Amino acid sequence: MKYFLIIIVTFFLSDCFASNFRIKLSHKFSDEVFALNEKTYTSVNNEELTFSRLKYYLGNIVLNYDNGDSYTDLVRYHLIDLDNPETMILELNNVPEGNIKTIKFSIGVDSLTNSNGLMEGDLDPLKGMYWAWSSGFINFKLEGSCVNCESNKEFTYHIGGFIAPYQSFQTTLVAVEQEVSDKDVAIEMIVNIGEVFLENKASLLHKVMSPSKTSKCFSEILPQMFSIKL
Amino acid sequence: MKKIFPGLILLTILGLVTLSFEGVDGTYELSDYTPDDTLTFVVPEGWPQPLYDFDKNPLTKNGIALGRKLFYDDMLSRDSTVSCAFCHLSYTNFTHIDHKLSHGIEDRIGTRNTLSIMNLAWYNTFMWDGGITNLDVQPLAPLTSFFEMDMDPDELITRLESSSEYPKLFKQAFGKDADVSGYYMFRAMSQFILTLNTYNSKYDKVMRKEAGATFTEREQKGLEVFRAKCASCHKEPLFTDGTFRNNGLAVDTNLNDGGRIKITRNIDDSLKFKVPSLRNIEVSYPYMHDGRYKSLQMILFHYSNGITDSKTLDPALKKGLNMGEDDKRNLIIFLKTLTDISFIRNKAHADPNRY
């Protein structure tokens, strides 16, 4: 009976001092709303770009509080797929009260998980994010075409790799000022695809489709895409 | 602490009652799913322990049956013409004989010779270049390859979900919460593949000293040649040591297949390929990663006179393997003792729609 009581009390407490925390991902290209197969975006290098696919793994989310505490998302990996609007909202349940200062997360799938073999849900190999010919996850997929490029208009960026020296798993930290009280909270995270085309030109880089030095360098620019709308 | 047990027992009973009620809706018989009814994987006497992690995917009768059905189902290819078995035929040791390079939907010709499927629980790398490191994810390659089944993963799930049989078979194999998904599909396929084991050839019977099993004089001499010349790479009892090596094949300039280097990007792995097992070699021609040799005679000619030197050529083959004509004849006679008729004729491995 004592156990039963403890369980009830814990339920009660967690209901009282925690809330649901929602991260809404807003994809942008510089200042414009990012959408697939619709608009043409102009990069800083004057390339006119359209996009047909954007999919990536976001995971290991940790909320850090001003008092040094932290909260870790129970779901290890979320597959974000622009073709599937449901995936643009990340729900974190029973987040404790307090002031959140930073959010830490990773882009891609860590090497241990990569070596774990078959997995379910968002990590199911049939989700289109697993390389068939060389076992391992694709961390980030961006495909489209460059309308005003002369030849080779299509570009295909499949970024991944978990074995040294080509690991392309990235972890990053974004600043946030968010108080969590007993009410549900929602924050907006901006994901700016324009960042990918600051130095990179679609006319020069058409294909990245395997773990390599290029893939690793590419992965290093991905964290810059993320910021919190304050 | 002790008081918890009666409660647990009560909960379990309640759980069983609710579960059996759910089975009444007629969609499937819950009694069909028996998670405890796992089959034990047999490790033949004297063999190493398998590398496959059976704890993650225990073999069950229903899981194997589902995997077998999937393996023989044309619906898994884009135009519903090619199943796994199209290239991996049971009566030719699960390979596509007489085709140098694989042959997929719409007669698309691939870049490599089909590998035999056998004893795969003892491997942790798959394909000629070892690019795949887990048996469970291997089928993703043929399913999505343009040259093989060219299937869109979402379309595959839709087809399985809308079939009249599969949703029920998934639940029978993995429990009532098992919806159609890649996760369960791959597990079922592995389960079937893990039943494709061959260790009952004449060679095995002689090694196990079974009554009446003895080598002829020529077979015995052939075994000796084999152990002297070939066994360092084609190691007993699997007839491979699981490594990647360059055995001196001249590069085919049309295919330009670098083998293992494609995966590791290490120049030292250029032109290295998986050392294939030689079990049932008699029935799985043509040979080598590109199917260049049609007969065992040609193979032996290669090892004795045809080695092409290169930076990564295996040191054991630098001078070629010196074998007299008699040695070669005996060696071929010995290699034929690796044929396991009970394996290739096993009806439990064949098309479930026919047997």
Question: Can you characterise this structure?
Answer:
The complex is a heterodimer of chains A (230) and B (355). About 5% of the residues of chain A have low confidence. The longest helix of chain A is centred in the first third of the chain and has 15 residues. Chain A is built from three helices and 14 strands. Chain A is mainly beta and 230 residues long. The radius of gyration of chain B is 23 Å and the shape is globular. The N terminus of chain B is likely disordered. Chain B folds into two domains: 193 residues, Cytochrome c-like domain (Cytochrome Bc1 Complex, Chain D, domain 2), CATH 1.10.760; 138 residues, Cytochrome c-like domain (Cytochrome Bc1 Complex, Chain D, domain 2). Helices cover 33% and strands 1% of the residues of chain B. In chain B, strands 1-2 form a two-stranded antiparallel ribbon. The chains are: A mainly beta (230), B mainly alpha (355). The interface between A and B is medium-sized, with 19 and 29 residues.
List keywords for this structure.
heterodimer; A: 9-stranded mixed β-sheet; 5-stranded mixed β-sheet; 3 helices; 12% helix; globular; B: 355 residues; mainly alpha; Cytochrome Bc1 Complex, Chain D, domain 2; 2 domains; two-stranded antiparallel sheet; 2 strands; 33% helix
User: What's the name of the CATH homologous superfamily of the largest domain in chain B?
Assistant: Cytochrome c-like domain
The most extensive interface between chains reads: A-B, 19 and 29 residues
Total beta strand runs of chain A = 14
Order of helix and strand elements from N to C terminus of chain A: HEEEEEEEEHEEEEEHE
**What's the gyration radius of chain A in Å?**
20 Å
Précis, in short:
The complex is a heterodimer of chains A (230) and B (355). With 230 residues, chain A is mainly β. Helix content of chain A is 12%, strand content 43%.
